[in-house]
Write a structure and sequence with these properties.
single chain; 314 residues; alpha/beta; Rossmann fold; four-stranded parallel β-sheet; 43% helix; globular; binds 1,3-dihydroxyacetonephosphate; binds iron/sulfur cluster
Length: 314
């Protein structure tokens, strides 16, 4: 394992060793999202985007899954692994966008559009997932929507991802709710991006599809976080302006030491993701088995179908 950040004393290293030992003893796997703090990224068994993490969760033969990310991601892992123990490293790590779609609103939209199918971003509650035809992530939204049978797709909760998909599909996309968004990506606005471009005129601009439409239009590329990791590796460019939560920049810089990465907006920091503040949170979750995740069986079974459909389609 490569430890990239400076360790001034032995404390962090001791924690790393204890975490590795606990993982072995308990046959636990640690799944970490790309926005987590550096020291947590560095102890991951798998570090990735929502799609990659869902895939790993569906494939693991570990007895215990520890998730360093946010609520809907750990819930997805539990939905796919009802017989395994799933723990989240911070119980307050609740994604505000996922909370923007209420079951009642989705049911109302379904009634208003009886011929439509429903595709929900994994950034949604298990309760809502149980009501949809397929889930999607930012990495496969276009593919999933275009593979559906219906001509009209109810799509939620992110209106910006809905915009991204609409530009790439003949189908009619109806955003549910009308104004669902990720506040972290919504504040990456044109003035901030233009300033970053002014400062780094030679950089290529890569943004997340949760960013506002005008920012998407201005970008050279639009990608999920792992899509950004791939682009950073594969493109010949030496400088990148990255329009997403700033936690990803650590991974990009670590994996591409000869290139430079600049945030489109340095204040794009997700409070929910940063509820897991340090290795202590990972260590205590593993040691004490705290913050267990559960999903009622009736909801789980239906939500599992929607997640599996996404995994099959993408
Ligand atoms: P991805 O890592 O799937 O691109 O998701 C971004 C995000 O906002 C997750 O909360
Ligand atoms: Fe939710 Fe946005 Fe934070 Fe992702 S970055 S967890 S979508 S608030």
């Amino acid at each position: 394992m490569l430890i990239f950040y400076p360790i001034k004393d032995g404390v962090l290293m001791d924690l790393v060793q204890k975490i590795e030992q606990l993982k072995k003893e308990k046959n636990a796997v640690l799944l970490v999202h790309n926005y987590q703090v550096p020291e947590v990224q560095d102890v991951a068994d798998f570090l990735g985007d929502s799609l990659g993490l869902a895939r790993k969760a569906s494939e693991t033969d570990a007895d215990i899954i520890v998730f360093a990310g946010v609520d809907f991601m750990a819930e997805t892992a539990k939905i796919l692994n009802p017989d395994k123990k799933v723990f989240i490293t911070a119980k307050e790590a609740n994604c505000p966008m996922s909370a923007m779609l209420l079951k009642e609103e989705l049911l109302k939209a379904k009634k208003e559009h009886p011929d439509a199918e429903v595709v929900l971003y994994v950034n949604s509650s298990a309760e809502c997932k149980a009501l949809c035809d397929s889930c999607c992530t930012s990495a496969n939204a276009e593919k999933v929507v275009n593979a559906m049978d219906a001509d009209t797709i109810l799509f939620g909760p992110d209106k910006n991802l809905a915009y991204y998909v609409q530009k790439r599909s003949e189908k009619k996309i109806v955003a549910v709710p009308k104004d669902g968004h990720c506040y972290v990506h919504a504040i990456i606005e044109m003035p901030a991006l233009e300033l970053a471009i002014e400062k780094h005129p030679n950089a290529i601009v890569v943004v997340h599809p949760e960013c506002p439409p005008d920012v998407q239009e201005r970008a050279d590329n639009i990608a999920s976080t792992s899509g950004m990791v791939r682009l950073a590796r594969e493109l010949p460019n030496k400088e990148f302006i990255i329009g997403t939560e700033t936690g990803l920049l650590y991974r990009l810089q670590k994996e591409n030491p000869g290139k430079k990465f600049f945030p489109a907006y340095e204040h794009a920091v997700c409070r929910a993701m940063k509820q897991t503040a340090s290795l202590n949170d990972v260590y205590l979750t593993l040691k004490e088995g705290r913050n267990g995740v559960s999903v009622p069986e009736e909801i789980r079974k239906k939500a599992e179908k929607a997640i599996n459909r996404m995994l099959e389609l993408s």
